[in-house]
Description:
By secondary structure, the protein is of the alpha+beta class. The strands form two sheets. Strands 6-5-4-3-7 form a five-stranded antiparallel sheet. The chain has a two-stranded antiparallel ribbon with strand order 1-2. Helix content is 37%, strand content 23%.
Amino acid sequence: MRSTEEVVESLRQALVGAGVVLPSLCVDPVTGASEEPFALVDLGRCNVRVAERLASVVRGERPAVGTHAVDVRDGRVGEVVGHVGGSVRLRPVGGGREWDCPKEAVVDAQPEEVMRARLRETNRESVRG
């Protein structure tokens, strides 16, 4: 049987692989120092965005809430804010009106696509003054 520390590290790596970071994830110090054969794992505290993303990952939603995706119908990049029926709800990178996209028309955004979308939005804002 693996040690509690090994299990915590395994969970940390799995969460990071799913795009979720729980900074306070650790072995519970009280039960870890006791004679209990199985220490508790302290998942720690996280903000609402991380909790929402974790729930999305656990539900198996793809792409997960909080990640970025591309609407292949028109190339728009947005942050995934939810899943409604057979659609993925996206919010533009710079904020604005959300839109629904069929699941089959959504692909994960590459980091360079997100950066380009942010740059376009920054340029658009600078032109507006």
